[in-house]
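For consistency, the fold was encoded as tokens, as this record shows:
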Amino acid sequence: MKKAIVLLSGGLDSATVLAKAVADGYECYALSFRYGQRHAVELDAANKIAKTLGAKEHRTAVIDLGAFGGSALTADIDVPKGRSEGEMETDIPITYVPARNTVFLSYALAYAEVIEANDIFIGVNALDYSGYPDCRPEFISAFETMANLATKAGVEGHKISIHAPLIAMTKAQIVTEGTALGVDYGMTISCYDPDEKGRACGQCDSCQLRAKGFKDAGLNDPTEYA
């Protein structure tokens, strides 16, 4: 089996990506991050998802993007609530964490080199997303180019591939495919601002995009809302 690093946040998209990679025959090494985010509920979800979907191994790296702040997810800044689709599409929201996917993929790249994996999976999406610049195809392509220039594996001819299988899919398409693959979305958490019991707020951008995905797919939304 080919080895793959799968970035696993505990959310809907990354769970779907893990299920897809396992179904495609990869031996999956899941990687999550405690990066200074405002809640750790998603890490509990990631642990359950990794075990349920058959990851070979699951590690959680501890880093501190909160040292810089600059985001509602890593600093004492209110998470926007109740925004319309039009408002979500007009600018890069304050929930964007500067350089987060660049940092995450760099850690995944180091992990991949150590275990001699040539494939890295990430659940970014360029359609139903909140305007993040590091969720675009151009970014994934550029990082793959860099990865093959900056690593021993790449220089020795062992091409490293960055897979973003959800990048051109709508949320409805994602949940439809994930459901077919057996993903229990009741285990996942997408909310930017869950309550102390881990229940989703239902009003942040991520909650709204998630709910719309289930509605458009004609599927039951298993999310527990506050």
